[in-house]
Amino acid sequence: MRIVMKFGGVSVKDGENIYHCANLVKKFSEGNEVVVVVSAMQRVTDALIKAAERCCSEPSAGFIKMFIADMMKRHYEAIEYAVRNDEIKAKVIAAVERLLDELEKVLLGISYLGELTRRSEDYIVSFGERLSAPIFSAALLSLGVDSVALTGGDAGIITDRNFGRAKPLPGVYTTIKNRLEPLLTIKKTVPVVTGFIGATDDGSITTLGRGGSDYTATILAAALDADEVWLWKEVDGIMTCDPKYVPNAKVIPEISYQEAMELSHFGAKILHPRALEPVMRKKIPVRIKNTFNPDAPGTVIGPTTSNTSEIVKALSLIPQAGIVNVSGAGFDFAEIMSEVFGRLAEAKVNVIMVAQSSSELNLSIVVDIRDLDKAYNSLKNLENGVIKVEKIPYVAVVSAVGSGMAGTPGVAGKIFSALGKNSINVIMISQSCSEYNVSFVVDGSDGVNAVRVVHDEFGLGN
């Protein structure tokens, strides 16, 4: 088998975890061809972003020295535990020191300029993965597994120049195959590739946006015609609902690409919908596995599922969202929609859900609570005496997903009847044309109760 394995930030959060994951790769690489994709160590990416922002707004050479020292300490401790060969350990320490010296110079440059562009931010956040990949590769080498660390650009992930949310260029799959195939088939080595980052054709570092490491894994899998993608996380698989909200949630053995995309769009922390695009074209299964319970079968995401008896398969909850409501009379609705979404796109507001009244007198847009003021402010000056713009804060979005819903009458009625019996008021409703999804908005205080009610109504915890 040819497997692309991705390890997230929790899986590689420290030396002990990196060593554990390296042993998993060693175990599964026997008789298989394996490509590894790694995220930055837990919380490192956030720390890099905050450091860059602070250097821009409050220049301080002392802060930079302390930040680099803290990064060095954390990664040095990881090396000490994960790499069990002194010669290999010395080489990876030298590589990490070079990277941190480079990072220090970049942060000093940001301080001097007082400017943080999207390009320089991509460059800075890339250090998280560029530091973790050599450590993971060194851990494999110390276990007797031949390995090489590569950046996304080294591996052939050449992207456009949309810094912060770059997309691979046409032809990238051929480039990746030409670069990685010989390592797998001739050298019999395990490439450890930085997740989340790529490079432009002139070598500038880019990032792939939210869910970028998962996206890296699926791009590589599609390019290499992998048999499966394994996404190692800290859960046994995709569950019927987040157990934080519904304690009796169960693991789902199989789920379709479409169902997984619907769930992830509406708040389930599985993977970004974009990450599934490369493997969907080639029908490569994606398996969610637990780093800390590797013998569990996990959840397989594929083109279809063998079990479609469940009408609703899973629920997701976005506990904190807001609504911007555009209403009026006598206006051209198509023109208003064009203007509204153009402004939201310009303000970089992520739209979660949209509902339109049949009378064309009202357009309701659900956004993340953090984007509510930005969305409201970008639309407020549409008001002209006819058009009115309002915002409703602190609502929750619940989404019920399942391929068995398609063509099954009465699903929505069952959901809203159960909510009504429990005195939960529905503010807004939306259903996709695929009939795989029914989403609704309730008051923020009712969100958790709403998912529990619907979860019980369809017996998902049984």
Description:
The protein has 462 residues and is an alpha/beta fold. Helix content is 42%, strand content 21%. The strands form three sheets. The chain has an eight-stranded mixed sheet, with helices on both faces. Strands 12-13-11-14-16-15 form a six-stranded antiparallel sheet. Helix 1 crosses helix 5, helix 2 packs parallel to helix 4 and helix 13 crosses helix 14. The two termini are 35 Å apart. The mean pLDDT is 92.
Topology of this structure?
Elements: E1 2-7, H1 15-29, E2 33-38, H2 44-57, H3 61-82, H4 86-113, H5 118-142, E3 147-150, H6 152-155, H7 172-185, E4 190-194, E5 197-199, E6 205-207, H8 212-224, E7 228-233, E8 254-256, H9 257-265, H10 277-282, E9 286-290, E10 299-302, E11 314-327, H11 333-346, E12 351-356, E13 362-368, H12 372-379, E14 388-401, H13 411-421, E15 426-431, E16 437-443, H14 447-457
Helix pairs in contact: 1-3, 1-5, 2-4, 2-5, 3-4, 3-5, 4-5, 7-8, 13-14
Observed structural traits:
462 residues, alpha/beta, eight-stranded mixed sheet, six-stranded antiparallel sheet, 14 helices, 16 strands, 21% strand
Main beta sheet: strand number and arrangement?
8 strands, mixed
Structural class: alpha/beta
Strand segment count: 16
Per DSSP, what share of the residues sits in E-state strands of 2 or more residues? 15-25%
Count of DSSP-assigned helices: 14
Uncertain runs:
none
**What gap, in angstroms, lies between the N and C termini?**
35 Å
Rg to the nearest angstrom? 24 Å
Shape descriptor reads globular
| Average pLDDT metric | 92
Could you give the order of strands across the largest sheet?
Answer: 3-4-2-1-7-9-10-8
SSE series: EHEHHHHEHHEEEHEEHHEEEHEEHEHEEH
**Which bin fits the share of residues in helices?**
40-55%
